[in-house]
Amino acid sequence: MTLGLSTYAFFWRGSDRVEAPMSLEAMLEETAALGGDVFQICDYPAIETFDEVRLAQLRAQAERLGIRLELGTRGIAADYLGRYLDIAEYLDVSLLRSMLYAGDDRPTLEGAIRRLESILPRLRRQSVTLALETYEQVAVAELMGVIERFDDPLVGVCLDPANCVAALESPESVIARTAERVVNLHVKDFHFTRAAGWVGFQLTGCPLGEGQLPFDAMIQQVDPVPRGISQVIEHWLPWQSDAATTCRLESEWTRHNLDFLRSYTA
To answer: Is-contact 174 140, C-beta < 8 A?
Structure first.
């Protein structure tokens, strides 16, 4: 069983909305203090500015704490992924999560396949698995059309069923379509409800087990424990009335979600 936290579990505590934002090193310490096995540095652009010394220090800290590091970014441009594979090498990372699109860089599906073909030899040399995330900007059928062109375990799915609700794809169908190729799980629960006044809808996070994520079906179909798939906790926590309340609730959600996962898999 491999459980841990993403930088998204520290979304507010690490942001400039608080007086003293948490550093990446502090997030790593908290992950270890809570008994996590893995810490995913996900969509954290500042990591690109770390020099070799700081990357070496971060790797040493993770090793001291017994934490496995993972990386996450957006986009599949060869040069850009190459930079993240450089960082992965410094940090001894074996899983890199990404997305097909990054801002205005939106390759066609055939273009995406060609890009992945060009980076696959390096993934093999480094033994790094590329996990492409399910999200609303790319239909799951199209994402799988790209991934299934590669009969290679180093190209797989980062499954996050909550993301696809915004594209009106049901979590159940997303799980069923991707389960065989999942290599990484982003775990967050959510509510999809009508907005106040019955005009529009809201898609927001909630503690695990309290929302509409079909958690049982996801775990049963993906079967992460025997497959060695890390389960990484994220949050969609709306800003509360003030920073102190928001940070306290973010911390509470993290503890609750780790306890929920442990009780389920115990």
So the answer is: yes
Measured distance CA(75)–CA(203) in Å, rounded: 24
SS3 category, 266:
coil
How is residue 245 written in tokens? 């309340």
Q: Are strands 189-194 and 201-206 parallel, antiparallel or unpaired?
A: antiparallel
49-78 pLDDT tens trace: 999 999 999 999 999 999 999 999 999 999
Structure tokens at 161: 């069923």
Torsion of CA 15, 17, 20, 23, to 10 degrees: 0
Which option is the CATH number for 3-265: 3.10.20.30, 3.20.20.150, 3.30.9.10, 3.30.460.10? 3.20.20.150
Residue 183 and residue 181: Cα distance in Å, rounded?
Answer: 6
CA distance 136 to 101: 11
Q: Which helix (H) or strand (E) holds 31?
A: helix 24-33
Is the model's pTM score more than 0.90? yes
| Domain spans of the chain, in order of start | 3-265
Q: What is the rounded CA–CA span in Å between residue 32 and residue 208? A: 20
H/E element holding 5?
strand 3-6
